[in-house]
Amino acid sequence: MIRALIFDFDGLILDTEVPEFQSWQEIYHAYGCTLPLPVWAAGIGTTGGFDPYAYLETQLGHTVDRVAVHAQRRQRCDTLITAQAVLPGVLDYLTAAQHLGLHLGVASSSSRAWVHGHLTRLALHGHFHCIRCRDDVGRPKPDPALYQAVLDALGVQPQEAVALEDSPHGIAAAKQAGLFCVAVPNPLTRQLSLAQADLQLTSLAALPLPSLLHAMQQGGV
Question: DSSP character for 87?
Answer without folding.
Answer: P
